[in-house]
Write a structure and sequence with these properties.
This protein is of the alpha/beta class. The protein has 2 domains: 121 residues, Aspartate Aminotransferase, domain 1 (Alpha-Beta Complex), CATH 3.90.1150; 252 residues, Type I PLP-dependent aspartate aminotransferase-like (Major domain) (Aspartate Aminotransferase, domain 2, 3-Layer(aba) Sandwich). 44% of the residues lie in helices and 16% in strands. The strands form 4 sheets. The chain has a 7-stranded mixed beta sheet with strand order 2-8-7-6-5-3-4, sandwiched between helices. Strands 11-12-15-14 form a 4-stranded antiparallel beta sheet.
């Protein structure tokens, strides 16, 4: 791509992003700034609900709702019928977990850096159902070791392998495809948390070889908060997998003591939807498809440049690990609380995020001897000048 082409793309992305005019937004791993088409889609549907009624507006938007499923499918390499829309990625993950009839002594194989909410679900299953959680070893440079997964998943009581592809901190990209190859070879179901991946990097469920994939709208996908999705493979659907608590969206009550599941992944949905958010998610998926690989490449390049600048600040310790690193940059500052730094930066018009030990993950944080972390996550619409400004402001705050 020529320099002129890249400049024109950046200008268009920023023109589409009104929030760029107000502040430096480096919290895309939390909630990215919505592009104008997504915002307009949301507000148009809400206006229709106000004018003609919520049910009527949903009926009117039926074709666009169906197109939203198709766009999500194209974004992850799946058919629309393999996509369920749910409230968020954590709900998607929980719906997938609930499809398994766990018994005492059954095993879930996971990683040491799985998202804290997922780890809490595993611990709850251990307490309620006697399910054992086994965490695979990391590679020396960070990220799960697929061969360790293979050794653990061979156990006859292994019911599921679950991996967070991009953990919430550490800039780490785990080798989710290699783990998928292991699971396919062993015939073990595979669940991927792609909450931080979709919209940041190319996502293809065929390459991942996963049975379930959980995603959200609000992060790098640049959609609204409060909506997400779950991919369910044909294999799981044909096996009859369904959530523990289906409702009349996912099944029909056919007789007093019988029900019939929906044929598609919609058996994992609930009947009540925020349809404005569904349409916003579809619009965000379409926008991401149009941006393509150029956006993913740029976000990663900005993160690499940001790491180079940050490591020159006295007292800053970069915490990112792994062979492959993404557009999430985490750091600890000696003697400073990350939450306080986040608020001070926000006062100066710069959005970041922070996490303490429990929110970032106790295993990862304890290994790094960190009590709190500051997280900066650029996206393709950010500029090098914004990175320079952020580094300068952070340096000044640390000195003060």
């Amino acid at each position: 791509m020529t320099t002129d082409t890249a400049s024109a793309l950046l200008a268009r992305w920023r023109e589409d992003t009104p929030g760029c005019r107000e502040r430096v937004h480096l919290n895309n791993a939390g909630a990215a700034l919505m592009p104008r088409p997504v915002l307009e889609t949301l507000t148009r549907h809400l206006e229709r609900e106000a004018l003609i009624g919520g049910y009527e507006a949903a009926d009117e938007a039926d074709a666009r709702v169906r197109e939203s499923y198709a766009r999500i499918g194209r974004l992850i390499g799946a058919a629309a019928g393999n996509v369920a829309i749910v409230e968020n990625a954590t709900v998607a993950f929980a719906q997938a977990l609930s499809a398994f009839d766990f018994r005492p002594g059954d095993r879930i194989v996971t990683t040491r850096t799985d998202y804290p909410s997922n780890q809490l679900m595993y611990l709850s299953l251990a307490r309620r159902a006697g399910v054992e959680t086994v965490r695979a070893d990391d590679l020396p440079e960070g990220g799960v070791d697929p061969e360790s997964v293979r050794r653990l998943a061979r156990h006859p009581r292994t019911k599921l392998v679950a991996v967070t592809w991009v953990p919430t901190n550490s800039g780490l990209v785990q080798d989710a495809s290699a783990v998928g190859e292991v699971c396919a070879g062993l015939g073990v179901p595979y669940l991927v948390d792609a909450c931080q991946s979709v919209g940041q990097m190319a996502t293809d469920v065929g390459t991942l070889r996963c049975d379930f994939l959980a995603g959200t709208a609000r992060k790098f996908l640049r959609g609204p908060r409060g909506i997400g999705f779950l991919y369910v493979s044909d294999r799981m659907l044909e096996r009859g997998a369904f959530p523990l608590y289906p409702d009349l969206r996912g099944a029909d009550w056919t007789d007093p003591d019988a029900f019939r599941l929906a044929d598609s992944a919609r058996r994992f949905e609930n009947w009540e939807f925020a349809y404005a958010l569904v349409l916003g998610l579809g619009e965000a998926a379409g926008y991401a498809l149009a941006v393509g690989q150029e956006g993913a490449d740029r976000a990663g390049q900005l993160a690499a440049q940001l790491r180079e600048r940050l490591q020159e600040i006295d007292g800053v310790r970069l915490l990112d690990r792994g062979r492959e690193r993404c557009a999430i940059v985490t750091l600890a500052v000696a003697g400073r609380d990350a939450a306080e730094l986040k608020l001070r930066l926000r006062e100066r018009g710069i959005n970041t995020s922070s996490a303490d030990r429990t929110a970032a993950g106790v295993i990862d944080m304890d290994e790094k001897r960190a009590t709190s972390v500051l997280r900066l996550s650029p996206h393709y619409y950010n500029t090098v000048e914004e990175l320079d400004r952020t580094v300068a402001e952070l340096r000044e705050l640390i000195r003060s």
